[in-house]
Structure formats: structure tokens, C-alpha cells
Amino acid sequence: MSFQFPRKLFAGAALGALLTAGAIAPAAAQSVKVETAGGCPQVITVISAKYASRSGINMQVNDGKTLTKSMMLAGQGRIDVTSAVPAPYNFMKAGAAMYKSLGKEKSSALAANLRGMWGYSCGVFLAMVWDESPVRTWEDLKGKKVFTGPPSGAAAQDMEQFIQAMTGYKPNVDYTAVRLNWPGAQPGMRDGQFDVYMRPMTIPSALVEELQSIRTLRILPVTPEDMKKPGMQKFVTKAGNLLTTLKAGAYPGLKGNDKDMPMPGLGLMQIAGKHVPDDVIYKITASFFDNIEEIHKNNPAFRSVSLKDPFATLNVPLHPGAYKYFKEKGVKVPANLVPPGQS
User: For the chain, what percentages of helix, strand and coil (3-state, to nearest 5) are there?
Assistant: First the structure.
């Protein structure tokens, strides 16, 4: 099997499943260029690659990427499949935000070249500090260094919007926004390059476990009253975001996780360029969902992903290959996700 396993940490069960249950791809495997970020989308992409290999698809996974750029590359036909964030797809269609420099005509043309595969919940947004840190409340972020995500990605915008919704603080005015690419995030927290570590985390999370093995972490609390703030209401209803509950004890040993807490959640999606042959996307989609029970068993973080709701947070019209699979399974496809020219 020639797809590349990521360098980062996996949840123990997920890694064990990938190393022991993968099949060898046939010699005539169809190769697919794939990009993904770190953390949750990386894990689900590599899981997908493992099962796709059984159907003769060689997904060559390149991880640690900024998804907003990967979405652009897929639209240009330079890569085939990528993890993606729903909100930037809307920006791409409008030629706004991180795609403004492309101009609306070019940006919207790239968006028109993208097709969806499935959507999924990717955990919760967490703000973490070492337990001995003087940062006890969100207001304590004033004057501190806060990791918010990669330099040009959607994650940093989300984290900074989260902070502003909670406190009114603006990045690099009220606090220093530390923007590093994903591979530098965990080492940065370990080495004290910032005071607060903010990023989306799966439940459970090998990233949290790895830091907890060094010393105790604590999360900054979010209350029901916080969720009533206008800024928070706007944040959790943004494309791809959602309101969820972080259950008590979801992260063993994590301080502050001793009771249920409302928390903004993150939804992502797997997408492809429309140039990718239908049979390739059909096989990738089928190999993933046909093995969903095994995936749930080995990867508890993805138990919410199923044929009951494979379009959660997906806002890109389906690729014809994925559409064919879901129709065969009797899954109702929302009108806005039906591929152009199909019914």
C-alpha cells in the first residue's frame, strides 16, 4: 500500500486499526492526490484511504496543509480530493475573504469546479492552558499570546471570532494571535511559545492525551449565559459551525471537564474536484460508508458519521460518483446538494 501515513499522532485505536487492518492495493490501483490538515480531518482522510485501497484506489495523502488553499488547488485540478471547511466555500463563490485577491470571476469559477462527498462533525473548539497558568477566564487573554491556527487558514479566523464573541477582544490589539502551521502547534504548546492553545479537537483526542502526558491541562469554561451573547449566536450558526455539548469526562484528566458544558462545534467535509472520474469517487465513498460500523468501533470520534446524516455541514453539490452511491443506498439528497444537471 503506497499511500503515506501522516507524521502526527492518532488516537490509539485508530492507529492500531490502520496498521493492522489495511489491505494491499492492487498493482493497477488508480492514484488520487489528496490533501488534508492536521488533527480530525487528517485522521478521517487516512481512514478513508485505508478502505479505498481495498477497492483499488491509491489515495496519496499529503497532510498538514491549509484547507483554504487545498480547496483552491482542487478547483484548479491540481489535486483530486481534500478535506474542506464549509464557510470558505461560500467565500470562494463570492470572491471574498481569503479569496478576494483572486477576483470574483476567477474565484467563483474555482468554486464551480468543486464537488462534495460527505460532511462530518469534527469535535469541539477548545481553549486550553497548562493548569498552573494564571489564565483562569476568557478575560485573562488580555495581553497574552494565543495560538489560533495557520497563517492563512479558516481555523485562525474561527478561533479569533470565538475570542471576540466571548470577550470583544480583537487579535493583535488586545492579545497576540500566534499563527503557525499545524505541524508547529503541538511543539509550540509544549515549548511555551504561547500562553493559550486554541484549536478544534476530536473527542477523544490523541493531541490532548499527548499534552496531558506531560502535565495537566485545563480548559477555559463556556457557560449557557455565554451562548446567549449575540456574537456567540452568530458564531455557532456560521456555515460549518454548530452548538454542541462537551460531556463531563470526555477528556479524562482534563481540568474543567468535570461537568457538561455548551461548546461550539466544528463541521468539515470531504470534497473533490469535478475532474475526478465518477467511478473513483464512487469507490472512495462506498468503501468508507460500507465499512462504517468497523470505523465506529475503531474510531469513537467519528460515531456521528453515518448514512443517517452523511451531509451534516456539507454545502457543496455532490460529485456524481458520491451521488450515485447515496441514491443506491436510498439516502435522501437535499435539493441544494444534487449535482448540476442531475435529478
Answer: 40, 20, 40
Measure the CA–CA gap between 46 and 50, rounded to whole angstroms: 6
pLDDT tens digits along 118-134: 999 888 999 999 999 99
Q: Say how many Å lie between the first and final Cα of the chain, rounded.
A: 37
Average pLDDT over residues 270-289: 98
Residues forming a β-bridge with 114:
273
Cell of 182: 499545524
Q: What is the mean pLDDT of residues 258-282?
A: 97
Nearest one of 53, 68, 77 to 101, comparing CA atoms:
68
Question: Of 270, 291, 289, which is closest to residue 330 (Cα–Cα)?
Answer: 289
Asked if residue 268 has pLDDT above 60, the reply is yes
| CA–CA dist 11, 289 (Å, integer) | 20
> How far apart are alpha carbons 174 and 155 in whole angstroms?
19
Q: Exposed (0-12), middle (13-18) or buried (19+): which is 118, by Cβ within 10 Å?
A: buried
The residue with cell 502551521 is 181
* pLDDT for the residue 188: 97
DSSP one-letter string for 233-261: HHHHTSTTEEEEEE-TTSSTT-BT-SS-E
Rounded Cα distance between 206 and 8, Å, is 9
Cα 250 vs. chain centroid, distance in angstroms? Answer: 19
Please count the other Cβ atoms lying within 10 Å of the Cβ belonging to residue 80: 23
Domains of the chain and any CATH numbers: 12-121+268-337 (3.40.190.10), 123-266 (3.40.190.10)
Output Rg (C-alpha) for the chain, integer angstroms.
20
